User: Fold these one by one.
Assistant:
Number 1:
Amino acid sequence: MATGPPSYTKVTHSNTYAGIDPTQPGLSTAGKVVLITGASGGIGRATASSFAASGPQALILFGRNADALAETATVARARHAEVTIQTHDADLCDASSVRSALNKVAAEFGGIDIVVHCAGVLPPIAPLLEVDPATFMDGYKTTVVSTLVTAQAVVLANKTTSPNEDKPITFVNLTTAGVLFPPFPGTGAYVGSKMAAVKLLEIFAVENKNVRVHNVHPGIVKTAMLDKLEETIKLPFPPNDSSLPADFIVWVVSPEAEFLKNKIVFSAWDVDELKARKKEIVGDSPGAGELWMGFQGYPRFKNGQPVPGTE
Ligand SMILES: NC(=O)c1ccc[n+]([C@@H]2O[C@H](COP(=O)([O-])OP(=O)(O)OC[C@H]3O[C@@H](n4cnc5c(N)ncnc54)[C@H](OP(=O)(O)O)[C@@H]3O)[C@@H](O)[C@H]2O)c1
């Protein structure tokens, strides 16, 4: 049993395991075009490698550093030598270059099926009274605007090749458990922006019914971002291996994890227990169920009548 934060499942993991092995037939991405942002390092690079193992039609890697993207492609090919990989260096806040790159991808491969949005930044960790609003906005822009730009560009790119069809898209947003945990001093800029991205995608999915959104907290993973965080914060838990979020994300986009759409999940949670709890997680109406941010104590009345269970 791994040591970690409070969990939804009894069993938790700190490393990959058989249930999320991306080479199993149920997790195959054969015929799917997979876009990974933030693929130049950290969790994005590990995720590229896991998707390569799942045998997609093509892997499309985005980041700003061309050399680092090439390194990710090499790492991914070591997992699956035959995989088709394209790299694109672009700033995700630059909507026109992202749209033009993804339109070309859609034209070449017929569209984009899966998006894993790993790009992110850690704004300075500091009390809100002291943060420089200009720096604060830089982090906010990367997290919130890049999420919007990516989601828009993928849907629009698919429309260029399939104008009469709303091609299904599965969009995985990398978030942080900080959006659920009690407020932690110094993290206002980071957690505030991550929360905004979650709500933005919730609305995006309602407006675009062909987009299935999953929010995943990857756990604590040793990356450039974690190194930066550890300059100011001592984390209470040991890091997870990057194979855990990477393989978990391949599982979360699979048909068997569709019930987790619009939810927030931690990659450390055991997938067999999640599947066993599908009914409670989904609930009996939209916005109901578990693993979602609610408002405790509300509602108590509907049309003047007490909501069952609140009398
Ligand atoms: N590591 C953790 O423990 C942890 C915990 C909770 C949540 N997360 C989340 O997981 C995700 C991945 O984090 P990580 O730890 O792997 O971070 P990382 O190693 O710092 O990687 C972040 C990636 O984002 C890319 N990026 C940043 N700004 C960009 C922009 N404007 N345009 C395009 N790409 C941009 C960077 O690529 P370039 O610099 O090449 O552009 C880099 O590849 C983030 O959303 C993070 O918030 C991480």
Note: The pocket of NAP is lined by residues 38, 40-44, 63-65, 68, 91-93, 118-121, 142, 146, 174, 176, 217-218, 220-221, 223-226 (CB under 6 Å).
Number 2:
Amino acid sequence: MQPCASHPFANIRRKGQGNQSHRFDSLPDAARRTSGSKMKMCGTPAWNSIEAPMYEITVEAGFSSGHYLRNYHGKCENPHGHNYKVRVTLAGRELDASGLLLDFKLLKQVLKPTIDRIDHQMLNDLEPFTELNPSAENIAKFFYNETNRQLAGMTDGRVRVKDCTIWETDTTTAKYSE
Ligand SMILES: [Zn+2]
């Protein structure tokens, strides 16, 4: 295991798609309903449709965990540790009454239960990694699912996870999105 590190939440970023979103938001409801004729023809657009205005916010956090890879021949078949970093990007079309997609304070809280569960633990001993290999790819999917679950109760479906990226080292990442 590598030395313990502090894992501050850092580098939270907001990203809006500029004036397009503001113009859309300033339209009266009737105009909004009729402005997306292409969307109507295609039925309900996917939540992450590139045609719809979208806000994004991003949060990063770190954790240190042990793991080993099953059905793998090489150094990573032996137990060892990483100082991982996770980046989660959330997206949604509607801001709340304060003009936020999600308060950054809540954004940190969304990640915390998942981080607390796996930090300074052997991943292979924890669900779902008792069966699933704790590869960076599967850890990214794990964060995607867990964060979406946390968000569902918090935002009533207004905000979804867009993607999750896991850094296993400074130079190697795995990303998951749906
Ligand atoms: Zn490893």
Note: The pocket of zinc ion is lined by residues 67, 76, 80, 82, 168 (CB under 6 Å).
Number 3:
Amino acid sequence: MIPTNVMPFPQIQYSMLCGVCPKCGKSDGFVNLGKEHWFICRDHKTKWFAGVNMFEGWENQTVAQAQSIESMLNSYKDVVPLREVDGEHKLGNHVL
Ligand SMILES: [Zn+2]
């Protein structure tokens, strides 16, 4: 059963910021678990934590939606995402 409340996440700059599945380099989007945003890959059943209260919409969730998300996330594996921005953190060298 695939929950229908996964947010599509087409904006590539956000998926680079928030990371992508380490196995396939993609993300199916994110789900809200309360205020927490979790990105997922359905193909590999992976999940990774993106942050708290970064995106709109979590307030509108019903209890039933939250429960279905929680049980989905429980069956997914916690992974460290690939972040394409990692290569550009050298900007930190320019601190005065
Ligand atoms: Zn994947």
Note: The chain is about 20% helix and 20% strand.
Number 4:
Amino acid sequence: MLYPLPAVLVGCRDEEGRDNLMTAAWAGTVCSDPVMVSVSIRKERYSHDIIERTGEFTLSLTTKKLAFATDFCGVKSGRDTDKFSLMKLTPLESARISAPGVSESPVVLECRVKQILRLGSHDMFVAEVVNVSVDEALLDENGKLTLERADLIAYSHGEYFTLGDKIGKFGYSVRKKRGRAAEAKGSAAAKGVRRRSGSGKPVKKYKN
Ligand SMILES: Cc1cc2nc3c(=O)[nH]c(=O)nc-3n(C[C@H](O)[C@H](O)[C@H](O)COP(=O)(O)O)c2cc1C
């Protein structure tokens, strides 16, 4: 009952070069230095063993346009389905790992597994984010990431939702009016992300 959650597409590639995607809602940010995320995956999933063997996966954020594919990738298995091709998704070659992301996604995190916690029904893969790429269409003229334009979706109690109205921002409850001009600062370049064009082609590499 801990909702809403992101519904991300977890990308992996096996040793023969076959790509797969699975949907995960049990994913989260767990550390900022080093930047780390987690994703909990049932042992039965086809993706589980591939990620365990290769130690790599990507997390692609999902949008309204990707909602159908997100659901499909969460109900069909890569054992007998080529989800990239059936959903007409384009694999995005990663800069630092072999596992592909999804070109149609606005933000892709490249992750290297550091620990696997055997929790019970699910194994939690704790991984370092070794690269981030963003669709450059989401960068404004100052290089600031405008994620609010991405139409991200959330998963809550078995259903998908677009995000609602903006009702505040970090720290607004204590911010003095005078300090607000400084909010515009903070560009994607400063945060060490890789830009890529809408086609998925990287256009510039920042910090890797
Ligand atoms: C919205 C949604 C969220 C899901 N979250 C998870 C999850 O966090 N962990 C998990 O193991 N399976 C999750 N699943 C189920 C897998 O995505 C599903 O079993 C998928 O078919 C596995 O694909 P694979 O066999 O190709 O790896 C989710 C499914 C949906 C639709």
Note: Helices lie at 46-54, 67-72, 83-86.
